[in-house]
Amino acid sequence: MNNSVTKFILLGLTQDGDKQKVIFAIFLVLYLMTLLGNFVILVTIKTSQTLGSPMYFFLFYLSFADACFSSSTAPRLIVDSLSQKKIISYEECMTQVFAAHFFGCMEVFVLILMAFDRYVAICKPLRYTTIMSQRVCGMLVSLAWVGSCIHSSAQIALALQLSFCGPNVIDHYFCDLQPLLKLACMDTYVINLLVVSNSGAICMVSFITLLISYAVILYSLRSHSREGRQKALSTCASHFTVVVIFFVPCIFIYMRPATIFSVDKIVAVFYTIGTPLLNPLIYTLRNSEVKSALKKLLCGITSVDT
């Protein structure tokens, strides 16, 4: 599609100079915490002898997806908060659309795999090691990578169909399909319908699937011992918290026509920056095995230094 627009201007979260400085400081700290938290989980799982179960195998990829997902939007928000003109080229914009949807979709699929793992562990404990073998887990993660690539490729294909002839001001802090649709100088009804049926459907169907799976898990816990029930509930509560924080904002953004609301940017902050930051905290603070492995890792590092 031929375009007379070769670059876009991002408005960011605010146009107020003083507020932009505050945004720079806050989101720089949050982003660094996100990278540190997810890096710690990656290293802990990779080096620990006790975190070899499929749940932690999937948690490893969730942390990787979190770090990459946050990196697809947060660095530009941080840099732009100190810039007078927040300019992004057309090529960089398309790259950001692809990266954000690829790693966002990867997170969706990994969350589904983690829910499936908990379902098998709780509802079919005698067949758990057979069903969730290392080979099967590897295949499931590979399918998640392929599915994410297909989704993001579809999104970028839709974005490349849009024709821009001005204006070129995006009322957001990163490039995404919804704000781009508002700038296109063409009929975007069909493309918007495809965006909703793609991103929106993935979010909604995945969310409903996860809710059903956790409902089945909770129902099956009736026959477990009190100790086993409490441990399973603690694990599922962590997973469910992540699911709600991630999916509710996504559904709000993508399950609707190309209409921009004033709260969109704040809502987007929750799933692009908030969730990748909270995941390491949720999975470490509520998981005794991860905390124990982390302590061993830190003790090992300390002993080497001394």
Automatic annotation (TrEMBL):
PANTHER family membership: OLFACTORY RECEPTOR
InterPro entries the UniProt entry points to: GPCR_Rhodpsn, GPCR_Rhodpsn_7TM, Olfact_rcpt, Olfactory_Receptors
Family classification: Belongs to the G-protein coupled receptor 1 family.
TM ranges: 22-45, 57-78, 98-116, 136-158, 199-221, 233-254, 266-285
Domain G-protein coupled receptors family 1 profile, chain residue ranges per copy: 37-283
Lineage: Eukaryota, Metazoa, Chordata, Craniata, Vertebrata
CDD domains: 7tmA_OR4A-like (cd15939)
Keyword Flavoprotein: no
Gene Ontology annotations for the cellular component aspect, listed alphabetically: plasma membrane
Keyword terms, alphabetized: Cell membrane, G-protein coupled receptor, Membrane, Olfaction, Receptor, Sensory transduction, Transducer, Transmembrane, Transmembrane helix
Recorded topology in the membrane: Multi-pass membrane protein
Subcellular location: Cell membrane; Membrane
Pfam families per UniProt: 7tm_4
Protein name as it appears in the record: Olfactory receptor
GO molecular function, one term: G protein-coupled receptor activity
Top-level taxon of origin: Eukaryota
